[in-house]
Design brief:
The structure is a single chain. The chain has 6 helices and 3 strands. A 3-stranded antiparallel sheet has the order 1-2-3. The longest helix is centred in the last third of the chain and has 23 residues. It is α+β, with helices and mostly antiparallel strands. About 55% of the residues lie in helices and about 20% in strands.
């Protein structure tokens, strides 16, 4: 087995077998509840941090804007992608970090940021005003 595949296998083992990592993943994916349906598949995937993005992918433009950024990104120990897939549609974000927990959290945060941007684009200003009004009228009893 080569170093590259061995390195990736170690990360996959962490994601699949380490109870602390698995628990952290479950905690993180709860944040997607407002954006998913019961049919949505949520995946957390380890990728080789030294590999580049597939040519033509949207992610390549977002994170590898120049050669210097690409070489900095590839220095990290972990590369984690979080993917939401429903039917034929999917959206994903990934992050690099030397700490697996931070890589997972950063990927989740990037995906939530993208989902919020999309939500703002499709939701009308009046819908937002109504939602804020409805939320402010709900009084919680302590």
């Amino acid at each position: 087995m080569s170093n590259d595949s061995s390195f990736l296998k170690t990360t996959l083992d962490l994601l699949e077998t380490d109870p602390e990592v698995k628990s952290f993943i479950y905690q993180q994916i709860i944040d997607f509840n407002p954006f998913v349906t019961p049919e949505t598949l949520v995946m957390v995937i380890a990728r080789d941090p030294r590999a580049t993005y597939a040519e033509g992918s949207d992610e390549e433009e977002e994170y590898f804007e120049d050669e210097e950024t690409a070489s900095e990104e590839k220095q990290y120990k972990y590369r984690i992608a979080v993917i939401l897939k429903e039917g034929e549609n999917s959206i994903e974000a990934e992050a690099f970090h030397d700490d697996i927990f931070e890589a997972i959290r950063l990927a989740k945060d990037r995906l939530i940021d993208r989902l919020l941007e999309i939500q703002e684009e499709v939701e009308s200003p009046q819908d937002r005003i109504n939602a804020i009004k409805d939320a402010s009228e709900n009084k919680q009893i302590h």
